[in-house]
Amino acid sequence: MRTWPVKDAEVRFSELLDACLLEGPQMVTRHGIGVAVLVPLQQWRRLQSAARPSLKELLLSDQARTDMVVPPLGQAKRRPVEPML
């Protein structure tokens, strides 16, 4: 992956974009440290779809779907009912 200092990326953005489309992802650095990566749109979409589970996968997973803890039956505290005005 080719790296571009942020100043070069700003001044030569069109060249950076062309390199991304022809060569693949391009890294932008600030003070020598990688801070961003420019990737072709189709590759980004592939990465996004691979990172998100489908609704079916979510519903069938063993992982908790919420952080809310439900108290055992009969031990829930009720909120006071506010009078209607």
Structure characterization notes:
By secondary structure, the protein is of the alpha+beta class. Helix content is 40%, strand content 18%. The protein contains 4 helices and 3 strands. The chain has a 3-stranded mixed sheet. The protein is elongated, with a radius of gyration of 25 Å. The model has no long low-confidence stretch (mean pLDDT 87).
Question: What are the key terms here?
Answer:
alpha+beta; three-stranded mixed sheet; 40% helix
Summarize the biggest pleated sheet. Answer: 3 strands, mixed
Secondary structure tally: strands: 3
Q: If strands are numbered along the chain, what order do they take across the biggest sheet?
A: 1-2-3
Total helices: the number is: 4
Percentage of residues in DSSP E strands: 15-25%
Q: Radius of gyration, Cα only, in angstroms?
A: 25 Å
Report, as a whole number of angstroms, the end-to-end distance.
66 Å
Low-confidence stretches: none
Mean pLDDT: 87
Structural class: alpha+beta
Order of helices and strands: EHHEEHH
